[in-house]
Amino acid sequence: MTRDDALRLAHAYADGELDASGAAEMEAAMAADPVVRAAVDRVREISRAIRDRAEYHAAPATLAAPWRAAPGAPADARRRFWLGQAALVAGTAAVTWAATFAVLRRGERPSLEHDVFASHVRATLGGRLIDVASSDQHTVKPWLSSRLPFSPPVVDLSGQGFELRGGRVDRVGGQAVAVLVYSRRRHMIDVFVWPGREPAAPEEASRDGFNLAGFDFGGMSACAISDLNRNELEDFVHALQHGAA
Predict the structure, then answer these.
(1) pLDDT for 145-179, tens place per residue?
(2) CATH class of 112-244
(3) Which of 5, 21, 145, 153 has its CA at 20 to 30 Å from residue 169's CA atom?
(4) Are 227 and 210 in contact (CB under 8 A)?
(5) Residue 164's closest CA among 132, 191, 133, 135?
């Protein structure tokens, strides 16, 4: 099973919808690839949050009315009743989901740090971490520059144990940004880069198992996010800043 296949099946696996063979393949993929494991963990966390915070309501007694109705009740009357109940259930579900996500986001002000985290998780779950796959900085940089109104610095850190995997264009804070993708062993690192000096995160921040670091990168703003441990992420940031100097 490829990483892309595993990421597409993350929701089905977390919900127990795979057969024994599919579940075994997913477990093997999770054991071999921390990106897949992190994706499944994120799905489970969201499911737990919804179960813990969503409001539950007893079904109205009128739902049982058709089962108690006389066999001779007109078919069109029963049909109108069920259409009305379907609309009620759909409306209740919509309100419940809206309320759930309002609770999940309550007290969380929109921020660049939040956007970076959301973009990284979205790209991981969607299997779209890389648009241009290359370990050559002279391939990645012009590809990004041709699609953005700025030219981000791209640094080869293979000598320090961080492999350039490629890049993509994403959005943070309502603007298009460059994302440089590196790896260390099986850990992926996203580096979001955009013009200006507004940091996306403090020098040290953590969120749901990911470490973030905001820093200056060749005169631009940048934020690195990864499930690497804090010390290794700091080493990476320092190497990146030194390479862009």
Answers:
(1) 999 999 999 999 999 999 999 999 998 888 899 99
(2) alpha beta
(3) 5
(4) yes
(5) 135
Residue tagged 């971490």 (tokens) = 129
Residue 223, beta-bridge partner list: 192, 214
Q: What is the pTM of this model?
A: 0.57
**Domain coordinates in residue numbering, the chain:** 3-53, 61-105, 112-244
H or E segment to which residue 167 belongs: strand 163-172
Contact indicator for 62, 215 with CB cutoff of 8 Å: no
Q: What percent of the chain has pLDDT over 70?
A: 69
Query: What does the DSSP assignment read for 51-114?
Result: HHHS---PPPGGGGHHHHS-TTS-HHHHHHHHHHHHHHHHHHHHHHHHHHHHHHHTT----HHH
Structure tokens at 164: 């350039």
The 10s digit of each residue's pLDDT in 12-53 is 888 788 888 888 888 888 888 877 787 787 777 766 655 655
